[in-house]
Amino acid sequence: MGKGRQLLLEHINAPGINTFEGYRQHNGYKALEKSLKMNPTDIIEEVKKSGLRGRGGAGFPTGMKWSFLARPEGVPRYIVCNADESEPGTFKDRYLMEHIPHLLIEGMIISSFALGTRTSYIYIRGELMYVYHILEKAIDEAYKAGLLGENILGSGYSLDLYMHIGAGAYICGEETGLIESLEGKRGNPRIKPPFPAVKGVWDCPTVVNNVETLAAVVPIINMGGDEYAKIGIGKSTGTKLISAGGHINKPGVYEIEMGVPVEEFIYSDAYCGGIRNGKKMKAVVAGGSSVPILPADKILKTPKGEPRLMSYESLSEGGFVEGTMLGSGGFIVMDEDTSVVKNLWNFTRFYHHESCGQCSPCREGTGWMEKILHRLLEGHGKMSDVDLLWEIQSKIDGRTICPLGDAAAWPVASAIRHFRSEFEDLVKNPEKATRDVKHYYRVNNLAEA
Ligand SMILES: Cc1cc2nc3c(=O)[nH]c(=O)nc-3n(C[C@H](O)[C@H](O)[C@H](O)COP(=O)(O)O)c2cc1C
Ligand code: SF4
User: Fold this and answer.
1) DSSP code, position 242
2) How many angstroms separate the alpha carbon of residue 410 from the centre of ligand 2?
């Protein structure tokens, strides 16, 4: 849960909230009833007024994205809910779908009505089969209640909602990779432009939105866009789900009002409850594995010495040299005993494994970085390896078809920027090398990098 306004998780502990009846008892589908009496363009206006920004990672304004959707005569449009959620450290969408599936379904019906789609999809990560079954049951209940299918609640509007299961590839969370996969192909990202708003699913105009983004449309309609915009701070309006993990006392999913001080989020009992075993905090990865890692002093204070807040603007203050990003809200806290290099190897190994292979800098560079980190951790590193790592990441950043390349480069750049001495220490004192990396490859029956 958390403290402050709870717009998404308010009824998370209500018995039966995962069923249609339980959801109904807590104002469920009231926003849909209200929406169906509204003009679809007014719904888009409310979302614009709310200031809602996409919760999938990039924080793009949702109302603006919706208004870009092309509307050629006689061509179908689609909404796809991105429920792939494979970003390491991020588990908020899964939590929401597992416990309040109807909130997502209600948000999807309202959004589909606003954008005039007749068919919408939920693309769900393949490993989440149990969540798939929960959603499947909820969709069945919605059809039986006349909230999906023909002539929803007598409004004349009809919508079919389908689920599509991915095969468990991180790259299928990237919106164009997702669209390729939905079409039955290998999930290779497309070159943009054209953007999905013009050419998406089957070359038709498509909006891809994150689970939390679509769920947030429900409270926005219930309370009105202006009221929603009053919550939060600056251009970070409303509430945000944060999946907090790592060396904290109370890992879990928290709904925060945007603008909570980072220090309060980490140390207050209402949220993470401080660092485990009385240890000191060393570093934080604030928005899923793709965002720059920050040392304790920099995550708590902005470059101006002000308290850092949980908002898009405050976390990015100082750019990539001093700041980071809110990203997908996967908040990973590391204590003083953590090896930043080992953590980085773990992330880099992931990106190497998940690279689709279309672009040489990403395909080759992620592998080279994994290899160098591997040898540093095995005690065979050279001083020049640190500069080599820096050089490789800089040749990936901004030179690829999709942002997976950037996502692989930024953690490397930030770890070297803030923790260079840890890399060098492994070279100067090879006896400190962890030497358990080989073990990882062996027990998982993988070829070593
Ligand atoms: C490699 C990669 C993986 C991504 N994975 C996800 C994901 O699992 N879920 C998600 O919502 N967005 C993910 N995104 C972002 C999507 O491309 C897209 O921006 C997002 O779904 C848009 O939704 P929003 O506007 O509601 O945030 C990913 C992006 C990249 C580059
Ligand atoms: S950046 Fe990587 S994942 Fe993205 S298209 Fe290129 S090779 Fe594929």
Assistant:
1) E
2) 15
CA of 326 to the centre of ligand 1 (A): 13
Rounded Cα gap, residues 139 and 27, in angstroms: 18
| Site to substitute for ligand 2 among 181, 354, 358, 406, most atoms within 8 A of C-beta | 358
Nearest ligand for residue 54 CA: 1
pTM passes above 0.70: yes
**Which-ligand-closest: CA of 361?**
2
432 within some domain: yes
What pLDDT score does 398 carry? 94
Answer whether residue 1 is part of any domain: no
38 belongs to a structural domain: yes
Residue closest via CA to ligand 1's atom 10 equals: 56
Q: Which residue, chain included where needed, has tokens 């699913």?
A: 201
Q: What is the pLDDT of residue 144?
A: 98
In a domain, 203, yes or no: yes
Q: Say whether both 299 and 419 belong to one domain.
A: no
Ligand 1 pocket, residues with Cβ under 6 angstroms = 54-58, 60, 65, 82, 84-87, 170-171, 173-175, 208-210, 213, 402-404, 407
CATH of residue 379: 1.20.1440.230
Q: Of 166, 191, 223, which one is at a domain's C-terminal end?
A: 223
**What CATH number has the domain bearing residue 46?**
3.40.50.11540
Cβ atoms 184, 162 nearer than 8 A: no
Residues whose beta carbon lies within 6 Å of some atom of ligand 2: 171, 189, 355-359, 362-363, 400-402, 404-405
Q: Residue 437 pLDDT more than 80?
A: no
- What pLDDT is stored for residue 4 in this prediction? 83
List strand residue ranges (DSSP E) for 234-317, in order.
236-237, 239-246, 252-257, 281-285, 293-295
Contact between residue 413 and residue 293 where contact means Cβ atoms under 8 Å apart = no
- Res. 3 pLDDT band, cuts 50 70 90: confident
Structure tokens at 362: 């990403």
Tell whether the model's pLDDT for residue 117 goes beyond 80.
yes
Nearest alpha carbon, ligand 2 atom 6: 359
Which protein residue's CA is at the shortest distance from atom 8 of ligand 1?
85
List the one residue out of 236, 294, 276 whose CA is nearest residue 260.
236
The whole domain housing 388 covers 340-443
Q: Separation of 48 CA from ligand 1 center, angstroms?
A: 20
- Give the SS3 label for residue 146: coil
pLDDT bin (cut points 50, 70, 90) of residue 131 is: very high
246 and 161 within one domain? no
